[in-house]
Amino acid sequence: MENQTLHVQGMSCKHCVQAVEESVGQLDGVASVTVHLNDAKVDVQFDETKAPLTKIVETIEDQGYDVTQ
């Protein structure tokens, strides 16, 4: 398992937190996802072979947020 902290811009409310946690959490290979709204960060624990980081970033961006690293 790998751990990664992503910087995500555009999240502003509890709905944003829920959207990101649910969409990323549903990916096969993602063990946990935690959104830190005040810090604009998302912590993800994942299996790179099942859920590549590029797929996680794409999933967050599909929800309408910008991922910067």
Automatic annotation (TrEMBL):
<keyword id="KW-0963">Cytoplasm</keyword>
<keyword id="KW-0479">Metal-binding</keyword>
<dbReference type="Pfam" id="PF00403">
    <property type="entry name" value="HMA"/>
</dbReference>
<dbReference type="InterPro" id="IPR049740">
    <property type="entry name" value="CopZ"/>
</dbReference>
<keyword id="KW-0143">Chaperone</keyword>
<dbReference type="InterPro" id="IPR006122">
    <property type="entry name" value="HMA_Cu_ion-bd"/>
</dbReference>
<dbReference type="InterPro" id="IPR000428">
    <property type="entry name" value="Cu-bd"/>
</dbReference>
<feature type="domain" description="HMA">
    <location>
        <begin position="2"/>
        <end position="68"/>
    </location>
</feature>
<keyword id="KW-0186">Copper</keyword>
<protein>
    <recommendedName>
        <fullName>Copper chaperone CopZ</fullName>
    </recommendedName>
</protein>
<dbReference type="InterPro" id="IPR006121">
    <property type="entry name" value="HMA_dom"/>
</dbReference>
<dbReference type="InterPro" id="IPR017969">
    <property type="entry name" value="Heavy-metal-associated_CS"/>
</dbReference>
<dbReference type="InterPro" id="IPR036163">
    <property type="entry name" value="HMA_dom_sf"/>
</dbReference>
